[in-house]
Automatic annotation (TrEMBL):
Organism: Artemia franciscana
Known pathway: Protein modification; protein glycosylation
Protein name, per record: Beta-1,4-glucuronyltransferase 1
Family matches, as InterPro entries: B4GAT1
Compartments, as annotated in UniProt: Golgi apparatus membrane
Cofactor(s), names only, from the UniProt record: Mn(2+)
Alphabetical list of PANTHER family matching this protein: BETA-1,4-GLUCURONYLTRANSFERASE 1
A GO molecular function held by the record: glucuronosyltransferase activity
Amino acid sequence: MKYNVIKVCSKPWFLGLLSVILLTTSNITLLMKVNTPTPLPDYLDTHNTTTICKYEDTPRVGRLDQNRQHIIFDSLFVGDNFWQLSQEKIVCLATLSTPDKLHWLPQVVTHWGGLVSLAIYLKDSEEQLFKSYLNYLYVCHSEIMANVSVHLIKPLVRHGDIYSRVSSYLSSEPPIIQCSNPTTVMKAFMKFRAKTVANKGVPQNHMRNVARKGCGTSYVITSDIDVIPSKNAEGQLETFLKRKESRECIKCVFVLPTFELDDQAIFPKSKSELLTLESKGRARPFHEKVFIHNQYATNFSRWRSSNTTNDIVISHPVTDFEFFYEPFYVSLDVVPPHDERFIGYGFTRNTQVYEMFLSGWKFYVLSPIFLIHWGLQRRSTRPGWRENENTKNRILFTNFKRELIARYKLDMKV
């Protein structure tokens, strides 16, 4: 009997079967380890718990960007109301973020009141952090996430594959979390972010294009996650953009004046309140102290003296356009895309606006609507690596400008 067992075990078919069993067992064990969610810290435990809805946990295949340097996952998460509202609404807010700024999303969505398409950039070490925070928002702030669609962009890291996969970012069995202030929760999460991670090399223009095309509406506003719309901005714009004079102006860009606000101030409920804060030195035009050319062409003096009622009107046209102008604006979704060769900071938004100017778009400033960036900025608070990125993009701009001259047969002295 012992000899027969040894004889059977030495057969090639038995050894092959045994190898398959061992390999399968090993793969299952490894898969369980990979898919086991990392529990949240204890301080996010115990109270105000909710059971998350189960989403299909099907792996998603990403697409590559044109330069094959980034992997993009469109509509990674789609809120319960997003698709229906995209058929009913004509304007959508397209925004972008890195994980450390994601806590601004609830305030953006609440103030805006309509569709939001969010593109987020992650490095590998941030993926679990983002997954946990997205779960937190869905569990604790489901009414906010209902109107949001989230898209993911990552650096392309090849491990023998020509594509990457991600599973659903909504866990079917989420950890128990305490529903508290989104900013407080994000600060807690950020303690687990690798200290070596910095927002260098962020493909902002990729993100803007992805977020914009994720909207699905006729009109789009493209902004940053820490730029907050005035309250009920979406409803006011829906009314304004449906007017005949707005609809008939195909190549019109409607600029939303943007201000910086003291961190300790209360968000202004109206243009009048904003102007009062400005008179006290607690608000000022965006980038006024850091780089005045960024918003200078908006002509805030004319805006201050124009309409302060609830209905949106055109305050004035932009008559002194300059190359470094970077307005936040609403327009039909037929504007040129943001050029994706510019990575990081510098020559990102202004190059797209410059191309719009050369191709015949007209810029008009709206009132009383506005945008707010929290915090009065100082040049001294900016890290040195941002200037390095700006220098690299300035070199790239030389070829970009030549292309625009050839394409539009126009130029403006820079």
